[in-house]
Structures are given as structure tokens and as C-alpha cells.
Records
---
Amino acid sequence: MCPQRGSECARVLGLRSVVYVIACGGEVKRASKFVPGFGEPVSCSIMKKSLKIVVIGDGACGKTSLILAQSGGPFSEDYTPTAFDDYAIEALINGKTKILTVCDTAGEDDFSSLRPLSYPDTDVFILCYSVERPESIRRLRDKWIPEIKQFCPHTPMLVVGNKKDIRDEIERRRRHPHADDPAPPKVVDLHEASECAQEFSSFNLIECSAKTREGVRKVFETAINAAVAFRSKQQNKVLESIMKLKLVF
């Protein structure tokens, strides 16, 4: 896909940016540069072909960095609060082009009444916690998962731990300690996070790092597969309903 088409896609989709991804069966093969754009409302004809991924979790847990890492965008240690940003990923899945709409949501409580407006028609949720903040995994259980179940009880969820590089660095220092090393910070217990994923998700826990890019590709491959399966299931339900109506009339 050429940059000119990317800009046109951004204009038509009304999204903040366009990311190009080649995927086969949900496997992400390639992603090119981050292309800014904003424009008109999404057209119905395109939306029928799109898959929607919503990324949620506490503020500063790495949601935006995760999306930018997949898009090839720059990594920054600085935190800029997100209101609501949408990104588009064009993917070739099982020989068909799909537009993956990735919604980056605000994690602050000030947006609690507005955030659910981005939930309708979601095909998969990526629930994020930050490895360096133990309270963020508990917030998944206490806030984010109940919120999803309230508005989208049947939509699949993927539990993802961001900032895995911090856990890796702590483990490296544990294996090769030095006398002047500071006390290691508390991090999310991996067993607790795995239990959360097993209890509320059909998929295994994935931890990744936007800084090193480790695990980012796996997150989106898994999300794409989940979204495709969910959309197919929903379409089959619609077809079954249509067939039942035909039998009635």
C-alpha cells in the first residue's frame, strides 16, 4: 500500500493515523511507517470490512506506547495522557483486506462516562496492566473487566502486561548482583497475572515491551485472531437468524 493511499484511507476513515500491516491468518508479517491523518466520518461500506480492537487499562500503563510500537512509531519515556485516539491498520487476513480500527482509550476516572462510547461493535479488548505497578493488575479485576462485562459481556478479552523490560532488568540484576545495586522495585506477580488471564480470558497472558518491541507482534497477532474468530461467530449468528425468519415466513 503506497503512502498516497494511506493518506486517503486516513481521510475516509476519519482516523488519527494509518498503519500498514500484512497479515495472514492473523500473523503480522510487516508494518511500515506511522502516517498522520484526520478527516471525515467512517463510511458504512468500509466499516463492514473492518475489525475493531479497543485497548484499555489504567493511565500511564503503556497503552499508547504498545500501539505505537506495533505501528513503528517512536518510543518515549514521557507520559502524555490520552483522550481518545483511533488508529487504522490495514491487514491482509486469509487473502482478504481488513481495516483494523485500534482504539486507544483514556484510563483516567474523569473519562468514565465517555469511555464506554468507544465500546460498541468491538471485536476484541486488549486489557493492559503495567509490570512496574502491582496495583494495575488488581485494577483489571476490580474496574476494567467488570466494565467490559457490563457493556460487552460476550466480547473476547486479551490480558497484556506492558513494560516487560523492567521485569527483565530486575531478573538480570538478580542473576548478576552488584553491591551498589538499588533495592529492586515491586512488580506485578507473574502468577497473579496469569491467573487473571486464565479466569477472564480464553488466551494466555502475554507480557511485552514497547521499548524493546519484545512480544508486541505476538499481542497483535493474537488480537487479530481473536477478532476474526469473534466476527465470524457473530456473522454466523446473523445468518442463522435470517434462516429462521425465512422458515417462519
---
Amino acid sequence: MAKWNDEEKLQYISIHLQDDAYRWWTQTSTTIKSWSLFTEAVIKAFGSTRVQELAFEQLKWYKQTVNQSITQYYDKIIELCKKVDPAMADSLKLKYLMAGVKESLKFHIALYDPQTIETFLSYARKLEDTLSFTKTDYIIHQYNESQDVHTFQQSLSPIATPEGQHEHNEYKNVQYSQQELLDTKGENNSRYKNSFYSSQSRNSTPNKSSRICYTCGTPGHYSRDCTRHHFE
């Protein structure tokens, strides 16, 4: 329709209308002779009413979002109130403001009991700033506490610094040296024991070649064991 002239728009507009709009057009088309008259008539018949209906539905269920400031929320509610009824009383606007405000603010505002929409906005702003400051202060406090804990944990660990690492390595080297010394001593003791036992074994075993019989002069036995003198 963007390329159509006004006569073509008026001629084919009926194919774009549905339900109430189509019925309205069939009843009034004979009296509307130009496109400009059509736009005026359709706005008068549907424009304001439809806008009011949509605004009212939105106003009933509108809630302040998490990241929406109180000023943004206030402006949106007042805008919807004006669309629904340009002459709406402030007391009714105040009810809509209270109905959709954040739960974190609603309790405090209700205790304050503002009587005008201006008072509502003024107090809600101060309350929002206070809560925001408190939240920021809490986050900073939590961060500082976590940093303190981290620093304390580092102070308990000797490996956390180059000096601590050096001390740790020296301690390990001392341990290794002591262990090597113990191993060396154990090995020497073992060698000494083996040598001792071997010597004892050699000393305890008689050497047959050193036995000499003084009776017959024959090596290999002692004189007391010699049998030759028994036969002489």
C-alpha cells in the first residue's frame, strides 16, 4: 500500500480490515469519499478506545523490573495512567505506583505512607539510594574479607614466597643428606658384618695342609691320630 495513491488505498482498504473494523467499514464506507476522511474516521472510532484498553491492561499488571530505577518506573506508570484516563486522580495513580513497585521498596514505602505521587517519588528515590549504598558497602566488605583470608592462607604456606621455597628446598636437601648418611652407614655395617662372618668362617675351618704328624712326619694328621706306631 505504500506505493498506492489515496484513491487506490481507499478502494482496497477493505481487504486489510477484520472483525469489528470490517463491520464498521461496511456500515460507513458509503459516507467516506477520501483517504483523509477514512483515517480521521477510523482513529475516532478505534484509536483512542484501543489505546486505552491496551494501556489499562498493561497498567494492571505492570511491575518494576530488577534493573529499572524508581524514576523510570514512576515515569512509566504515570504515562500509562494518562493513556487510560488523562484526568485520573492522583490517589488512583498512587495506588498503581504502590502495586507494582519492587518488594524490597514496597514495605518501607508503605510504612512511610506517602499521600501524593510526588511524595512517593521523593521518598522512594532516597530509599533506593540508601539500599544501593548499603549493598555496595556490603560487597566491598565481603571482598576485603576474602582478600584477608587469602593473605592469611598465604602466610601459613612457606612455599608461597621465594624465601619460603628456598627454605623448603634446604629442608628437603637436609632430609636427603641424612637419609644418604643412614644408607651409607647401613651399607658399611652390612659389609663389615659380611667380612667378619667370612673371616670367622675361615678361622673356624681347620686347614688340612697345616696338620703334621710328629711321629711319622707325614702331613695330613696329628700324632695322636697316627696309626703307624701301632704297627712298629
---
Amino acid sequence: MKSMQLLKCFKTKNQAIRCVSSLQSFMTKPREEVLCNQAVKDAEKIVGYPTSFLSLRWLLNDEVANIALHIRKLIGTNHPLLNTARDLLLKRDVPAWGLIVLLVSKAGGLNKHFSDMECDITAGILHSQRVLAEVTVMIKTSNIVHNSLLNIDNMQSEDVVDLNFGNKIALLSGDYLLSICFRELAGLKNQKVNEIISTSLRDLAEAEFIEPRDKQNRPLPAKPLSVQQDVEIPNEYGTEPFQLTKVLGNTKSEWTLRHILGGGSLLAKCCQGTLQLAGHSDNFQKIGYTLGRNIALAWQTRIDLEIFQEDNLGPFSLISAPVMFHLQHDPSFYSEIISCVDGKVDYENIRRVVKSGPGLSETKKLQSEFCDKAVSILGNFTDSDAKKALFNMIRAM
């Protein structure tokens, strides 16, 4: 009997069709992914229900239903919003952030008396903390939707109308989610939390202005400096912006700052904010911030490593840690990267070259560094099921 072959097909740069067997990826998942998924499931039991439900209240309404109808009209246009919508429905990277905020909430406990009306007794947290977890997920989601905007200046005239319509839907959808986020934040009636979450939105915006960038405004790494410096990226607990001075070109510092601005600040300040809602001291809130920041960066290294697994094909971020560490090792390869400024990227070649260098091993070291820091910070929390769940999630990355 002939064995059944499962094939995954994609187009190469010269439009040729290439198929590879996906039987292994169909039958089994990498051990790390299985462990991480199990850690997430166990953590969801601690907080009471699957965190995919966090966004359910937001998504099951007439406005989002109308958006979905408009997105259907984009089928056949190749607008990035289609892939974004698919990924948001199929992947769990965003919901896990809400889960982390809930776990930090429960691990931190309540530092003063709250009425029964304010508490979710079954989960052991405040209703306001659950709202903040929802806000965390939806701000991140809105940012992902906004990033699916497409530069159509050089498109052919017959494509412009459909693609421009897709841009309008992406822009308005992201704006709608943000407006709901800040309406919910206002309902918490906590000015400090409102302020620090607003600064994380500023950080997300600033991440989009760090150059160099290609014609579609996708980020490219800066040219690596001949002498590398480990420039420390400070913890910004308040409203001060991050500084770019001496960061660009220093691989580790540049990667760290780009991804703090691109999302790490959001998770960090939501973890800080949830402890503020529970009445904790400023010092303990700062512990929540540093925990969230290190978990976010460790999570990002995991995403960056997944890009280079055998069964992953197609486009990826050129500011991923393996690419940037490879550039530090081989600065001459930067000419290949900067040539992508016109938007034409040979991802297969870049993936092959990076896998042959030290980029993956250096990224694993960076991941271990952030995980170890997160575990160390977690020691400031009292022992509980939530603390154990956070520990298991960190170690499963």
C-alpha cells in the first residue's frame, strides 16, 4: 500500500510552484510547542475560562459583524488584511497576553478590601482587572490590524480601488477597536492606569517610525556597528518616552528596543496597571512591569525562532533576532538586507543563510536570558497556583 503524502505548496520568487511534504508537521508538533500549549491550557484553568473568550464580548457585536462582511469583499484582492484576519482567528499569540495579565492579577492578589460587587469571586480577581486583560488583547489586535495597511502608490490602476477599500477597512477597524479600548479604560475611573496604558499606545506608534524601512513601511535593521555596545534599555514605569541614542546598530539593544516599543511596553504596563488596580505599592507595580516586559521579550524570541523551523515558509520579519545576530556576525550580508528596501525580498535565501550562521544559537541565548530574568522576578510573588502557572509558561517558551 502506498503511503499518503501531505504536501504544502507555495510560490517561489520566480513564481514557480514548490511543494514539500508536511506529513511530519501534520502528525506531530515540536515538543516545545506541545509544552507551551499545555502550559497555556493549565493556566486557563487557573483564571476560570479559555482566554479566547476575552475578546468574545468585543467581537460578537453588530459593528464587528459589519466589518467581517466588508472583509469578505476583499477576497481575491491579495490585500494583507485577509491574512491578518485569518491569523488572528487561527493563532493564539495575542490571547496569551490577556492570560498573562490575568495570571499576574491573581498571583499579586488584592492589597486592600474590595466589595463583593468589584470582585470576580470564582477567579479571585477584580472585574476591573479582567477588563484590563481584555483591553491588552484588543490594543494589540488593533495594532496588528493597522499594520496590514498597504502602500498602493505604485500599484496598477485596476487594483487601486479594491486595495484602497481594504486600507479603509483596516484603518477604521483598528480605530474602532482602539476607541472601545479607551472607553473601557475610562470606565475603570483610574487616571494612573489610563495614563500608563496611553503611553504604551504611544510606544506602539513610535515603533513605526524607526528607520530604515522598505516601501511598504516594514522595518529593516540598521547597519550593524563595527564595535558593538550593550546599551541598556531602561525600564520606563511612567510616561517618559524611550531614547534611540546609541541604540541603532547595536544588535541586542536595537532588537530589544524595537520589540519593547512594538508590544513589550504594552504587556509590561498592563501588568503594572493590573497591580495598581489591586491597590499594590509603587514598588510592587514596578515588579509587575519588569515581569511583563521580560515575558514579552522572551515570547518574541520564541516567535523569531519559529520562523526558521523546517515547516515554516514564506515572509517573515527582517528585524527578527536571528537575522540581526547574523548581521552582527557577517556585516557584509547587510547589502542583501538593505536591497529589500524596494519590497522585493528573497526570503528563502535569507532563511538559508541565517540558518547556516550563529543567529539561531544567539537567539536561544537571548531567550534564556529573558526567561531567567522573568523567573527571578517571579520570586517576588507569594506561592500560588497562578505563580506556578506563570513559571510553567515561561519555562515552556
---
Amino acid sequence: MVTARWLVLLALRNAAVLGAAVVLLAGLSTPRVVLAQEVTPVFVVPREPVAAGGSLSVWLAVLNASDRAVSYSFPSTLQGRLSIGGVERQVSLALRTPADGGAALIPPGGYLRREYVLTMPAGIVGKVALDASGVQANPVIVEVVPILAAAQTDAKPEGPTLGGVFSRPDYDPEEFFKAHFFGYEPLYFIVGTEQPNAKFQISFRYQLLNSNGPLVQRHPWLKGFNLAYSQTSLWDWSQPSAPFFDTSYRPEVFYLMQRVDEGRWADWFRLDLQAGAKHESNGKGGLDSRSLNIVYFEPTVRFGQEDGLQLTLAPRVWAYVGSLSDNSDIANYRGYVGLRSVVGWAKGWQLSAIGRLGDDANRGSVQLDLSYPLMKVLFGNSSLYLYLQYFYGYGESLLQYNQRGTSFRVGFALYRW
């Protein structure tokens, strides 16, 4: 009897030990249930505007900051909220690929992301805040522009149409212009003590084809064609009648491919490609005439989060085409390569450097621009940037491309890199 009881107790103890071992092994081999503090959901949206009534891709990236793999369940739909001017609108975001829903394993220190699609309500235009319930992700800002290409309807258009697609009642010239007009190079006005005292620059680009037109809707790559115009003037206040010392006029046409990576590689990396042709002239005649034409290629890479520290590198290579009779040796000073680099915060201090290397190592130039948004210190009332610029090297003006100089100026900017 004692022996039988002892055998039963021994069997129970062994079973308990075996059960504990099985539970322990299962815990080691099975991903842990996700905890809120272990993962960080992040919303990512394109920087390009979206048309009212159009579709918007919203990426939900979930970062795993722990040292263990965790399981995260991506819902098939998200309930979102759009906010603008105190008005809120409830919307739904659906997975673009339904099979991507459900639980997924996120490796330690890694992330997973899924693409959701949102149909923007037709009646919303402007800067819209988007957030979603059910996931503790960051709100994002989306720029919504008016619908410029109307869909075919049974109703007869009130005005003339172009190809049966573009109707006059849906066309607002001012909104159309804003949707296709962009800053290009920095816009600033700065002054210093060296002659010529003042310097200012205007620059913009204009997208040639309508983003919402049938041609671009069918072939989205066509929206990359742009016209641009930049003008840099040196103004000598110290002389009688304050004449303009020299002005550089730079029209160009180029093709811009934005977000070549389409956000697939990493949310902290961006690649743009640009190629074009540019004319530059100072508009003068006789011995003071200066002009050149180039074709160029420029890749731009950006590292860093949208709301964090960013580094941008944009090397450019070019070739001279056409006659250089007004300035036959300008390639000795301008060279064939340049580099633009920008480091800083989108909403804070930013330092940019532009360098050109001439054929001779002693030639070339470097320009440093430091800027800060004044809207952060004047209670949000200013729309300007504080702007400081230092130049050293050859060719600050096209007129004196073969003369070396140094200048430092301070002023304000409306737009920066």
C-alpha cells in the first residue's frame, strides 16, 4: 500500500515537472503577446498633395524597440478622423491588400508596415489632420487640393469642356495655379557691408501638366516635367543712383522624379532624381555680356525623419552646350561638378552649403546659408526666415566669374531649401 502511494506521488511529481518544462519551452519558442510599450505605430503619408475625392495611401509602420520578437495584429480596416478648421469628418481606411491583415511577427529592433487606402471626401480642401482610433499612431498632415478634372457625368456642363473631361465650373484659376506652382531655390533679400551691398534671389518652378488631368492620370510619370526660373541680383547701394551691379537670369526645363523609393526602403530615406537643361545670362551686351548653356543630372538623397534632424546631399554633374564665346574660359572656374548639402530641422535651424570645383583646385567657390523660421519666435505672426549667407571663391556674379571675392550678408527669406 505504501509502495503504491509512493509510486502515485512520484508519477504526479514527474508530470508536474514535465508540464512546467513544456510551458517554459513554449514560452521561449512562441512570440510574446505584444505590449504597448514594446511597439510604436507610426503613420506615414506622401508629401505630395492629394485631390479632394481622390485616394490617399497611408502607411502604418510598427516599430519593435524590444530585444524580442513580438506579434502585432494589423486590422483590416481603421476608423480615422479628418480635422480642419474645427470641423471633423469620420473616415475609414482599408488595407490595400486584404491578405496583409492579421497577426505578423516583428523581429527585435525591426519594423513591419502595411498600406491602407483612404478616399478623401470631395468637400474637404486645405491642410487636413488625420488620426485613427484603435492604434496609438501619430497624427499626420495631408494637403488636399480641389478636384481640377471633373468625371464624366450625365449632366450637361455649364461651360465649354476640353475633351469632355475638363469643365469650366470645376476650374478655379487661382487654385489651379497654386496646385502647380512651387518654390525652387531659396527666395531671399540680404544686405552686407561689402560692395555690392545687397543681394536678392527669386526662384520658382511650375509643373507643366495637370496632376488631375486624364493624361497624367493614365501616365503618372508625366507630371515630372517642369519649367523653372531663377534670378539672382547684386545691388550696389553705395553708388549714386544705387545701380544693379549684375543680374543672373536662369530659365530651365527639367524632369523631376520624386520619391523614387516610394517609401519602400525606409521611412528615414528619400531619393529624388532630376535632369534638365538650363540657360544662364546676365542680359548685357558688348564686353559685359556673359552667357552659357548646360545640361545636368542631379540625384538628391535625404536621410532622417520628417520631424527630426535631416541631412540632404545633392551632387550635380553638368556639361556645357552651345557657344561660350562671351566667356570662353568659364569652365575653368565653374568646373563640371558641384554639391549641395543641407543639414538641420524642417521647423528649426538649417545650414546649407553649395560648392563648385573648377578645373584648377585653387578655383571654385563655396556658399554657406544659415536660416531659422521666425514664425517660431514671434508668436506665429511672421512668415519669414532669418537668413545669413557667406560666400567665398570665384564667380558670385556672372559678370566677374573669373574674380575671387568674399562676402557676408544678413536678411530675410521667404523660402529655403
